[in-house]
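ok so for the tutorial part 2 we go from a plain amino acid sequence to predicted structure tokens. step 1 is just haveing the sequence, like this:
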Amino acid sequence: MFLLNSDDLDALWNCLRENCVIDDATAAEKMNYEDFCHIASVCTEQIGPKCRQFFSPSNFMKFVKDDAGRIAILPFYLYVLRTVSLTQARIDMSEHDQDSDGFLQSHEMESYIMGLIPNLAQLRDMLETFRQMYCRIAAQKFFFFCDPHRRGKACIKKMLLSNCLQELMELHQESEEEVTETEQAENWFSLTSAQRVCDMFLALDKDASGSLSKQELKEYADGTLTEIFIERVFDEHVRRGKSSRVNSREMDFDSFLDFVLALENKDTPEGLTYLFRCLDLQGRGFLTTADIHSLFRDVHKKWIEGGNYELCIEDVRDEIWDMVKPSDPLKITLNDLLGCKQGGTVASMLIDVRGFWAHDNRENLLQEEEEPPEEESQ
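step 2 — the prediction. this is what the tokens look like for a chain of 378 residues:
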């Protein structure tokens, strides 16, 4: 199959615009099926038969139609653009698949990303000395979301369908074209975000050993995470060193990237799965009221140390139960947290005093909005 190149895509867009109609009500550029067939013929003449694949009747039927049976040309063009990008990405990834098994290992994914950098507007001016580190940080997100069993290789098909690739490809956009600092910071693949994560690790690594001890990790996020959570992170997600001594276990950079990804994506199944393993103190696959009490006790301690009002741990425990509404009234499972749509909030409340403060403050604001204003005394 021959792919459309950038000139072909420009020609397709011009052809669509020159042969569409303008909707009087919305001013949107649209085409009916007759227009669609005509444009297909014109494009085939101008571009060649490689564009025919996009002009099938089934493709036309995929798009929302107005009362006159017309579809907007922009969604159709974006569909073509995305299909071409995904196909090119599949070809490029497959070229890095040394085992030809449909999977990429970390170094293969890093090599693929390295090849993209010159073509991504927001990355092409990156310092040469930072490129390898950037590729390591970027590749880790693909593996966090597409290698759930931590086998060290991720399925190419799964990576193509993930949001990760879409976020990475957004960096095609020129940086001056209204890409705000907030948008850059929120996109894991932006240079701003990669530098932020790298700087965080270096700041925490006080002894410059290249890995983090429990004591060093406790300073993450200004020390708002609980000690029991940090302990559980090391129990569940940090491999022991070659020495058998417990104190030899430290968090390497890749494990730190997973840690940050989990905390910054708590509402995703992957992020919540990572955190649930830490919350599951007994490793039984569920949380009991006793587990909730143990976890929140550390949050409560930090809450009081911060000068906040006294609160009842049992009340918070009951509130969490009400939020989750577990299928079994005696225990909360990962599926319960995923199903209640508030799993990320519950996890934050149990591991981070700042997360609990954000929830508590939101609840107080909601109560204030619901309370009717007091009538003035006559």
